[in-house]
TrEMBL record:
This is Lysosomal dipeptide transporter MFSD1. Homodimer. Interacts with lysosomal protein GLMP (via lumenal domain); the interaction starts while both proteins are still in the endoplasmic reticulum and is required for stabilization of MFSD1 in lysosomes but has no direct effect on its targeting to lysosomes or transporter activity. Keywords: Lysosome, Membrane, Transmembrane, Transmembrane helix, Transport. It is found in: Lysosome membrane. GO terms for cellular component: lysosomal membrane. Belongs to the major facilitator superfamily. InterPro entries: MFS, MFS_dom, MFS_trans_sf, MFSD1. It is a multi-pass membrane protein.
């Protein structure tokens, strides 16, 4: 007995629905597959950012238990950045030309985990030099891991959602930093009841290391997913490119170098400030240690929630350079309020800084992929990382020196001066881009049209060489000269002998 037509249609519909769900979960182009990949990509950096600011959350205890000056304490951040003055560039180059993204990510994540373990052991032994060594190794992996994450983001999500993906990446990373500020002191206080002094501090650092273990697992899982993605989606679509060489750096677009000026002078006004923020708020605003940690975490907390939304908005509006100008300007306002307008609630100033940080990060980093060829992006992001860390290494030490000798007011003036340089560099890029009619400050639709016109122009320019090669080939094999008729008399060009 045959089934009614309606029952057959329902069965077919259910089969199609089931097949669609399976496809979404298992195929690299499926929504669920890509969503899981995005989550893993975001969590790859969680442990690194959580552990990066462990010293800031426990600053007063570290200085007291290990008897460190502010200059020695800030060296824990400087020594993180110094190796990346060179390795940030080399790490990106190795991703492009030696390791590839998957192996590079695993290697750099391993270094991050080993560095955190070494630093925790240094705390347990009361050895300042071992803590510095651990932070050094941690830095070797942490910044190059961020370069690998950026490459993954461009490779998997290049297009209209890239700004949002960068925002999500930043969001999860900063949630890691926020959670650090919110839980580390309470965790230390709980551990310290049973293990007072350095032992309690060391156990707290070891417990923080578990976040790096979690991120390492996410890194491995993402690598397995990328193997399938490469096999299914990119096996037959890979376009051979020229081999990447270190000497390629000197041919990078001048706008790329100006973007790096913005990166260096903006971030040295944010990260070093947060590194010394706990004692800043305790001394300048008479806050308790827990309140000082809480207000320092506001920048990361706001960026954790605001970055995806702002990335989505920037994806829809474009105009990245105007967004960058807004972000830098708001950060200057925040520092000015903390210095000269102390009657304004500092929570308002730090909230302003958090929004500004989210705006800049979501609008600036995707621009690198517009000025650098895709096969050189690992090297380009490595250069950005190297320059950013050279600034952080030098300026964090300078910040500690300024505070020890002249106090926090001059330190804030120093931050505002750096932001002024970043703002000037952004205006130069804006005017240059405007005069050239380039893509950096266009809307998404106008940017797409501009890129299409550029591709068409390039195709027209390369057409004569195609004709010449065709003639040369026909003469070589001894047949009549072949002419390519590119006129539009019909729908296609024809080959005529």
């Amino acid at each position: 007995m045959e089934e009614p037509v309606e029952t057959q249609e329902e069965n077919i519909s259910q089969q199609d629905s089931s097949t669609g769900l399976i496809h979404s979960m298992t195929h690299p182009s499926g929504f669920i597959f890509r969503f899981v990949g995005l989550l893993l990509l975001c969590f790859v950096g969680f442990g690194s950012y959580f552990c990066y600011d462990n010293p800031a959350a426990l600053q007063d205890y570290i200085q007291e238990d290990l008897n460190l000056t502010k200059a020695q304490y800030t060296m824990l951040y400087s020594v993180y950045s110094w190796p990346n003055v060179f390795l940030g560039f080399v790490g990106g180059f190795l991703i492009d030309s030696v390791f590839g993204i998957r192996m590079g990510s695993n290697i750099y994540m391993s270094l991050t985990l080993i560095g955190q373990l070494c630093c925790s052991t240094g705390v347990w032994m009361g050895s300042y030099w071992m803590m510095l060594l651990g932070r050094f190794i941690f830095g070797l992996g942490g910044e190059s891991l961020a370069v690998a994450q950026n490459n993954y983001a461009v490779l998997w999500f290049k297009g209209r959602v890239l700004n949002m993906v960068f925002g999500l990446q930043l969001s999860f990373a900063r949630i890691g930093s926020t959670v650090n500020f919110m839980v580390m002191e309470d965790l230390y206080n709980s551990v310290e009841k049973s293990y007072p002094g350095i032992d309690g501090l060391a156990i707290t650092f070891y417990l923080a290391t578990l976040t790096c273990v979690f991120s390492f697992i996410c890194c491995l899982l993402l690598g397995f997913m990328d193997i399938k993605t490469e096999r299914v989606l990119r096996l037959h679509n890979t376009i051979p490119s020229d081999p990447v060489k270190m000497s390629d750096v000197k041919y990078f677009n001048k706008k790329f170098w100006l973007l790096n000026v913005v990166i260096v002078f903006f971030y040295v006004a944010v990260f070093p400030f947060i590194a010394v923020g706990k004692t800043f708020f305790m001394e300048q605003f008479n806050m308790s240690p827990s309140d000082a940690n809480r207000i320092c975490s506001i920048v990361y907390l706001i960026s954790g929630f605001a970055s995806p939304a702002l990335g989505f908005i920037i994806d829809r509006t474009g105009r990245n350079l105007l967004w960058i100008i807004t972000g830098v300007s708001l950060t200057m306002v925040a520092h000015a309020c903390l210095t000269f307008f102390t009657w304004i609630n500092p929570y308002i100033s730090m909230s302003c800084m958090g929004i500004a940080y989210s705006i800049l990060a979501s609008s600036l980093w995707p621009l690198i992929s517009l000025v650098i060829p895709e096969h050189q992006l690992g090297t380009a992001y490595g250069v950005c990382s190297a320059l950013q860390n050279s600034g952080l290494a030098m300026f964090t030490s300078i910040v500690g020196f300024i505070i020890d000798h002249w106090g926090y007011t001059w330190c804030e003036i120093f931050f505002i001066s750096n932001l002024s340089i970043a703002l000037i560099a952004t205006f130069i890029i804006f005017l240059w881009d405007l005069c050239q009619g380039d893509v950096l400050n266009l809307s998404p639709s106008a940017r797409l049209q501009h890129q299409q016109r550029a591709l068409n122009k390039k195709a027209v320019q390369t057409w004569p060489s195609v004709v010449w090669q065709a003639k040369a080939f026909s003469n070589l094999v001894g047949i009549k000269t072949m002419v390519l008729d590119g006129t539009n008399n019909d729908s296609e060009g024809q080959l005529k002998f």
